[in-house]
Amino acid sequence: MQLVVARIGRAHGIKGEVTVEVRTDEPELRLAPGAVLATDPAARGPLTIETGRVHSGRLLLRFAGVRDRNGAEELRNTLLIAEVDPDEVPEDEDEYYDHQLMDLDVVTADGTEVGRITEISHLPSQDLFIVERPDGSEVMIPFVEDIVTEIDLEEQRAVIDPPPGLIDDRAEIASSRDADAEQTPEDAAAPSEGAPSEDATASSGGAPSEGAADARSEGDARSEGDA
Fold it and tell me: Which residues make beta-bridge pairs with 63?
């Protein structure tokens, strides 16, 4: 099975090095010197990593046969793809690869069907499950422990405890509009005794993206992108 483990960025310097957007929690394994990686577009590879180093917090790689800035720039935006055993799982029991989570059924604790995971979006602060509802609409669910309370790979389901408005926001909006429509002009002009403030559910995150999704106590979650 092939998984995307990095994306090549801009050239660095004049000797063929490139910056790399890491998409693996195991760069020391996936992106080590000597590793041979497939690419997307396929015509740019395979690429063999010759050297690697960290500079100002960013990983720099140089590939065999790439010796100057022009050659490095030609690789820009190339995806690096590793061959991974499909039975391989992350070392941490609370981490998951994207391919393990795709197509899981999403239900609430009482068994109410929410939908099916069709995509995992990797953001700087956290990961999101993109869930397709039975009616074809989509809802985004942060992959944090307070919301995603259980991943059951045997039953192929993810159990969630959604805060108010996360999965029923459309119903709340419709209800609000109905209430506004019924309001008289006098009611509309009357001052409010405490209009409810807009609620926002936020969670801290920031674990480096490898591909392993991690739902831990602080709510961080990351997952490795499938090819």
Answer: 49
The residues that bridge with 223 in the sheet, in sequence order, are none
Q: Using one digit for the tens of pLDDT, what is the confidence trace for 128-140?
A: 899 999 999 999 9
Residue (of 145, 143, 139) closest to 166 by Cα position: 139
- Rounded average pLDDT over 201-224: 42
Distance CA 126, CA 207 (A): 8
Mean pLDDT over the full length of the chain:
77
CA dihedral (198, 199, 205, 210) positive or negative = negative
- What does the DSSP assignment read for 128-146? EEEEE-TTS-EEEEE--TT
In angstroms, the CA 15 to CA 113 distance is 55
Asked whether 126 and 213 are in contact (CB, 8 A), the reply is no
Q: pTM of this prediction?
A: 0.52
β-strands 79-83, 2-12 pairing = antiparallel
Helical H runs in the chain? 27-30, 69-73, 98-101, 169-182, 185-189
| Tens digits of residue pLDDT in 64-116 | 999 999 999 999 999 999 887 766 666 666 778 777 888 999 999 999 999 99
Residue 184 has pLDDT above 50, yes or no: no
CA distance 34 to 93: 29
Tell me the C-alpha distance between 120 and 48, whole Å: 29
Cα(164)–Cα(31) distance, rounded to whole angstroms? 42
Strand order in the sheet with 157-160: 138-142, 127-132, 113-122, 105-108, 157-160, 148-152
Strands 58-63 and 17-22: antiparallel
